[in-house]
Backbone:
């Protein structure tokens, strides 16, 4: 699914209906695994550590657009030439922006963990309220229903 084989030229983009787009998809996902992979999808780029912003910044417009094999109503699949992707990955700019993205991701993950710990600490610090004290009528009704299910006498 991440990489796609294609024999369409950029002029034929989006015109490949029926078997043409299926062959490109099959080569990547479940078809001939020995086929040469010439293009990568956005999902393939994400698996390699690319973010949507890095794709826009370094690669720009896709080299090829294909009909989505799961739904023709869905947006077309954006494909980028492997050579172009690898050249971008070797660049100093890619190293810089991917390192910055990794730092932002780590900072956000740490902040989420900190917030979670704070919420759990506040919950643990709250005094436990017995629902029978806060809602005596509700507690009495709950006890009555429980005793009915268990077949015992109703509570006094």
Residues:
């Amino acid at each position: 699914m991440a990489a796609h084989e294609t024999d369409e030229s950029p002029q034929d983009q989006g015109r490949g209906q029926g078997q043409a787009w299926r062959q490109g998809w099959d080569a990547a996902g479940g078809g001939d695994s020995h086929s040469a992979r010439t293009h990568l999808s956005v999902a393939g780029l994400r698996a390699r550590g690319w973010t949507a912003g890095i794709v826009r910044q370094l690669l720009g417009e896709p080299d090829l657009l294909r009909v989505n094999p799961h739904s023709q109503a869905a947006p077309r699949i954006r494909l980028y030439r492997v050579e172009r992707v690898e050249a971008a990955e070797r660049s100093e700019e890619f190293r810089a922006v991917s390192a910055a993205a990794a730092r932002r991701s780590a900072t956000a993950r740490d902040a989420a963990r900190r917030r979670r710990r704070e919420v759990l600490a506040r919950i643990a610090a709250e005094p436990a309220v017995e629902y029978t004290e806060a809602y005596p009528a509700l507690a009495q009704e709950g006890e009555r229903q429980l005793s009915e299910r268990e077949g015992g006498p109703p509570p006094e």
